[in-house]
Amino acid sequence: MIVINNNALLKEYCEKYDINSHFSNWEALTKKLVHYEKGEIIAFYGDQANKLFFLVKGTIKFCCFTDDYEEYFFFDATNEGLFGEVEYVMNIPLITQSEVIEDCHCIVIPVKENRKLLDNDLKFQVFLTTILAKKYNDMRNLCMNAESYPLEIRLAKYLIADKNSSKISDLTQIAKTIKCSYRQLLRTIKQFVENGWIEHLPQKGKYKIKDRDALEEVAKR
C-alpha cells in the first residue's frame, strides 16, 4: 500500500466518477488516495472494518468464505466503485477478503474519523441505500440466471455485465459464478470464438470481447 500525495489526481478521480456529489460536504471528510499492487491483500476476512473505499482504477477480487468452500466474485470500477459499505452499515468485521488483481487506486475514507459526518449526511445515506439495493438486485438476478437460463445466455450476461472492461480471464472463477463445469465453459467459449463474439488472446486462458452488441442480443433471449 502506497499513499499517493497528489491532490490533482484525487480531484481528477472525484470528477470522473462524480464522487463528491454523493456527499453534502465532501471537502470536510478525511480521505486519502492509495495505490495497491497486484497480489496485495487490501483487507482480510474477519478483520475489524474501519474504512470505506471507492475503487477508481484497477480490479479487485473479493473472496467470501464458508465452512466448506470459497466463492469468488469480481468488482471493477462500476457501481460507483464503492465497497466496505455493508460493514459500515452493520458495524461488523469484514465479510470478504479483497485481493488486487490489477494494480489499483482507491480513495479511502476512514470510518472512525468520519463517522459523525457520514451518519448525519442524508445525501450519503440515500446514495448508500441505492448502492446496497443495486448490489442486492444484481446478486438476485445472477442467482435467477444461474437457475433459469441456458449456459450460453448466462455466459453472455456475465461478459457484458461490466461495461468498462472487455477482458476475460480466470475461467475457473467464471465457471463457479455462472454455475457450470470448467469443461462446459470451455465448450461455450469455443462456440463464442467461432461466432466472432470474443477472441482468444496470445496469453493462455485470456480472451476479450470482440462483438459486445452480439453478446447483448444473446443475453436478451
Describe the structure.
This protein has 221 residues and is an alpha+beta fold. The chain folds into two domains: 2-130, Jelly Rolls (Sandwich); 146-219, Orthogonal Bundle (Arc Repressor Mutant, subunit A), CATH 1.10.10.10. The protein has helices at 7-17, 85-90, 111-119, 122-148, 151-160, 171-177, 182-194, 212-219, and strands spanning 2-4, 32-36, 41-43, 51-65, 70-75, 82-83, 97-110, 167-168, 198-200, 207-209. Strands 1, 2, 3, 4, 5, 6 and 7 form a seven-stranded antiparallel beta sheet that branches. A three-stranded antiparallel beta sheet has the order 8-10-9. Helix 5 crosses helix 8 (212-219) and helix 6 packs across helix 7. It is elongated, with a radius of gyration of 19 Å. The mean pLDDT is 86.
Looking at this protein, list some descriptive labels.
single chain; 221 residues; Jelly Rolls; three-stranded antiparallel sheet; 8 helices; 41% helix; elongated
